[in-house]
Structures are given as structure tokens and as C-alpha cells.
Design a protein that fits this description.
By secondary structure, this protein is an alpha+beta fold. The chain is built from four helices and ten strands. The protein is 19% helix and 26% strand.
Length: 166
């Protein structure tokens, strides 16, 4: 099935929680049938513009596939060309929403904004800053965060190694 082309639509943006590791995830979800071995291929819109890089399928034939957004792929490519390596700021935490049906939403019903820390990676920046499971992050450098996606965007856009006020 090399060099095949399929079609579909993007059914969600900002998908996370797809792996069992605490990592930065911001996938596009698509029902375009990405075949095994097609990871790294382009996800195109109807005008033939690249909107993502196919990266993962959730079970063969399920119609649930994921792509890295093209703006992130461009950021990585530009940094690789400029410096020969890619560096990104990170906290080293697992996160949960305070909205919806999460245990944290039930524990903190009066909080409408913020993100709960569910775990701290050993040796990571969050551990060095003494963050702990069940801490609630309300803002990054004074900018309110209401979702995991917002927190991730605020942190990853900082210069690696710089201080961040949570």
C-alpha cells in the first residue's frame, strides 16, 4: 500500500492522552485511513495544502488516526535547519482537566479555570521546582489557563531553560 492516497476529515484538534507517557501531545484526529507504514506522510486539505504529518493509528481499520499539526512540524523543521537540533520547553508533568467529569472537577467544583497535575516526572523541571501531584495550575506568567492545551502552549512557547511563574 505504498504511495496510497486516502481521504477523510479532521474530527478533532488538540488530542492528547494517547500514550502512556507524560509527553506533550497536540494531535489532529482524522478518519483518513492511514495505513501502517504511512507515518510521516502529509495530511492534506482539499486545496492540497499540508495541514499535518501522519503519525499514529489507533488500531488497524478503526478509522481513528492522528497527525502532528503542520505548524508544529514547521517549528521543528525551522529550528533543525537553524541550529541542528530541536529544543522545547517542558514541565515534566501529567495533567488533567478541571472541567467535565474528571475527579478534579468534582473535588474543586468552584474552579472553572486551571489544570490539575496528576504526576511529576523524576528529574524533570517540575520536580526541581517542587511541584506535586494534585497541585492546580491557574496561570502561566500571569496568563490564565483553562485547559491542558492552553497550559501546554504557554509553556512550550517559552525559551528552554527560562523561569516560568505558575
Amino acid at each position: 500500500l505504498e504511495y496510497s492516497v486516502t481521504f477523510g476529515h479532521i474530527s478533532a484538534k488538540g488530542r492528547a492522552g494517547l500514550t502512556d507517557r507524560m509527553m506533550d501531545e497536540d494531535f489532529l484526529q482524522t478518519d483518513a485511513n492511514i495505513n501502517p507504514g504511512n507515518s510521516g506522510g502529509p495530511l492534506l486539505n482539499l486545496d492540497g495544502e499540508v495541514v499535518g504529518v501522519n503519525s499514529m493509528i489507533r488500531g488497524v481499520g478503526t478509522g481513528i488516526c492522528f497527525a502532528i499539526p503542520s505548524n508544529l512540524a514547521r517549528e521543528v523543521a525551522d529550528q533543525l535547519v537553524e541550529t541542528g537540533k530541536f529544543r522545547r520547553s517542558w514541565l515534566g508533568v501529567g495533567l488533567a482537566e478541571l472541567r467535565g467529569d474528571s475527579p478534579f472537577a468534582r473535588r474543586f467544583p468552584n474552579l472553572t479555570n486551571g489544570v490539575a497535575i496528576t504526576g511529576v516526572m523524576a528529574g524533570g523541571p517540575a520536580e526541581r521546582a517542587q511541584l506535586a501531584s494534585e497541585d492546580i495550575v491557574l496561570a502561566v506568567d500571569g496568563r490564565s489557563v483553562a485547559s491542558i492545551t492552553q497550559l501546554r502552549r504557554e509553556v512550550t512557547r517559552k525559551r528552554p531553560g527560562s523561569d516560568v511563574k505558575l
